[in-house]
Amino acid sequence: MITFPKDFVWGTSTASYQIEGGWLEGGKGLSIWDAFTHIPGKIADSSTGDVTCDHFHKWRDDVALMAGLGLKAYRMSIAWDRIQPAGRGDPNPEGIRFYSELFDELLKHGITPWVTLYHWDLPLALQMELDGWLNPRLAEIFREYASICFSAFGDRVKHWITINEPWVVSLLGHGQGIFAPGRVSTTEPYTVAHTLLRAHALAVDEYRTKFQPAQKGK
Length: 218
Prior knowledge:
Layout: E1 12-13, H1 16-19, H2 32-37, H3 55-69, E2 73-77, H4 80-83, H5 93-108, E3 112-118, H6 124-130, H7 137-153, E4 159-163, H8 166-174, H9 188-215
Parallel strand pairs: 1-2, 2-3, 3-4
Helix pairs in contact: 3-5, 7-9, 8-9
């Protein structure tokens, strides 16, 4: 019989591109997945994330459904391009407000948010202008984005995840080409993996040195 420890956290999980929709609303920029899914032949049934579950408009109803299910934890991701439409620069106030209100609603229903900073939806501008994760500069740029999120949401978010499944970004996105940005190479996955590892390390350092002492998160 399988048993779980008493402090095991049960919940449900989503990713921003998979559920939000609202791809051209709320000041959001484009991501590599917005571009990839609009290329004919890349997706078998030509599906896109333009609307999906329409969580961008229905998030209050979605939280109510979670509460009705008795969920106590919700692992979700923030769309980088909704926070920084071009991947760099000042944060988008509409994006900050969207996630801020979502976190408030979750907590109001007794649901603890577990937040992933990056679930594959790299701002398209960073891919086009800097070659994305192949550029070592992305690690520091990611740190700046993470810092914006820690500052804006860390008073309520106490559980942070940096990068979801970096092997997918590295291998499927830059080796086999079946995920965005759709590159095929035998060497690029290693370069990308190295940048992702550095990005993780810099974001963790940013949190531990500047935010964790006051926010008390993990």
